[in-house]
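Entry:
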Amino acid sequence: MQLVGLVGGIASGKSTVAECFRDLGAAVLDADQAGHDVLREPAVISAIKHRWGEEVLDAEGQVRRGAVAKIVFDAGGEGERKFLEQLTHPRIQMRIQQRIQQLQSGSVVPPVAVLDAALLFEAGWSRICDKIVFVDATDDKRQAWAATRGWTAAQLAERERAQLPIEVKRSRADFVIENRGSRDELRTNVERVWRELAATG
């Protein structure tokens, strides 16, 4: 089973590309979902509450992700972001590695597992990947998609500053999937990379 890291700029269409890979027979490991799960762990909730107070928790005592995002992505929030990453990244990686082990020990092992992780390089998870795929989309397209999430251009820029520059991610990738047209065109591009992965696997 090949482990393929999936990266790209924010709102570049990584989730859609992951879906296309799943349709072709890959397993998909969603680091963002693992992060959501980690934020529900009692030890993590306790540490976050100790750091930022009750106001970042909802009425049920769960972490309000929007409130935390405002703290860590606002200007000057680098130290707070590092705290959150040091708290959550090891736990996210543990969940990812447990899932990989489950896939490898299953009765039917998928040929490819795709790790969809925005901070793949920053968290060091690229080291466990056999190949890296970069999803490329225009700035205009990404800004339009980000707007559907309710983000302003300034908020998108602030979040992007918390990640490696897009050109660095692209330069470190083994494959580039262009996401500049229709979904059918995107699927064709994913299928091309799928065939290349099969040839190298």
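Residues 2-200 form a domain with the Rossmann fold fold (CATH 3.40.50.300).
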